[in-house]
Amino acid sequence: MKWLLWFDLPVLLGFAAAIVLYGWAWDARHVIGMAIAAIGFALWFTARLQLGKSFAVLPKARALVSTGLYSKFRNPIYLFGGLAYGGLIIAWGKVIPLIVFFLLYPFYQFVRARKEAAVLEKTFGDEYRRYRASTWL
Fold this sequence. Notes:
The protein is built from 5 helices and no strands. The protein is mainly alpha-helical and 137 residues long.
């Protein structure tokens, strides 16, 4: 089941490869979208590494990680993963997927973040509340 923890990595890279292999053009949309995706991917990957063994597919409270990107953002995986996928969808250039993504992704991640916050607050109490007050998103 450990493979599930990194399942989104080949999905993201496969999506990027498909855009490059089957529709790349050196125009502003492609370059800007892929630049956004690359920045998002680098920060997403960094957040995943910094979370270490605390990462789980379903909300669990193994440890309260508050260093690195987690010292500024409560949910950098959601934030930067969304940035990476958003950049890829911009580069892809399809309007309907772009609209659907930007309408649904924030809502989906908000729901996930709330569930995680509830688990962390129940487990870590005041320590988590202080952390939450000092971070963004």
